[in-house]
Amino acid sequence: MTRLFKAYRVLAMVVGVxxxxxxAALPLYYLVPEGETAQSIGAKMMLVWPVHGWVYIAYVVVxxxxxxxxxxxxxxxxxxxxxxxxxxxxxxxxxxxxQRLRAEHPELAAA
Length: 111
What we know:
Blueprint: H1 3-31, H2 37-45, H3 48-70, H4 77-82, H5 89-104
Helix pairs in contact: 1-2, 1-3, 1-5
Protein name: DUF3817 domain-containing protein
Organism: Nocardioides panacisoli
Keywords: Cell membrane, Membrane, Transmembrane, Transmembrane helix
């Protein structure tokens, strides 16, 4: 597997997991009365958002590089980028990108 492809897959998974944690934190932080244990857990979980932001920036750069190296049109980029902001969607998009890359450019996705 090329390093770029491997980096894309790892970053996509990390971004996806951070999104799930971040979105799970929102109701705990905003809907649970202040001072309760669940609210303080939500507050601690909210720290995931800055981490998600930095990892997402790396994901965007790697996704752009992978798409351009594969020779795909840049119209493939918007869904790839939006996927990093919508929970669960990123896992589906990563799977589709990996499938397409293996089919069209096996040299980029070689093990």
